[in-house]
Design goal:
By secondary structure, the chain is of the alpha/beta class. The protein is about 25% helix and about 20% strand. The strands form three sheets. It has a four-stranded parallel beta sheet with strand order 1-4-5-8. Strands 2-3 form a two-stranded antiparallel ribbon. The termini are far apart.
Amino acid sequence: MRQRSSLSAPSIDCGDCGAGLGIEPSSSGRVGCPVFVMLPLDTVWKVERDGRKVAILKRERALEIALHTLRKAGVEGVMVDVWWGICERAGPRVYDFSAYRRLFHKCAAAGLKVQAVMSFHAAGGNVGDTCKIPLPKWVLDIGERNPDIFYTDKQMHRNKECLSLGCDEVPLFWGRSPVDMYRDFVDAFANAFDYLFGAVITEITVGLGPAGELRYPSYPEGDGRWRFPGVGEYQCCDEYMLADLR
């Protein structure tokens, strides 16, 4: 049997060449680019128990093994979506980060860092989405009465994946605007996990727009009308966007 050959990068002695460039070793002591692995979208999930929805870690034992395996492979940390539709599902300003606390503690035990994404959008309508996580029900209920909180095209198709930026400053949600809700959510997360900041949670990013991207849902895939890179349609026909255009 012929032995498989492997390719390796040549060894280069740079001496102190990285000092002037601000290159620092990772937390493991190795110099290089730290690698973070994205966890599955449904790592934290909600199930019904005793007549109420609760947040859980899916496949918890398998997750523990995977985290330790990643660390042994030299991975610096993981990235995980902190879903608005899961954490504030019960009502306005009613936050449940319990499953994420368990996850972050497991990451710490495995020696991994965490990049947390505040995901203020739904999952299930884009390429690679393996599960469906809607916006909080109480937000969708307001959308049933006032569908203009969602991006809308000229055919009046409403995209319920995220809120329209047209209503960003309008207090439509129990006295709060979307910007208020996003700020309150991030503040609640920071208050819950400040003791992990820096040591375990090393980065927080905000996911707004479809798939958490800062763009318009001009080619929504969930309803089958468009496929990337189709040209899509303008998403400016909700009353708040139209008012802004005028």
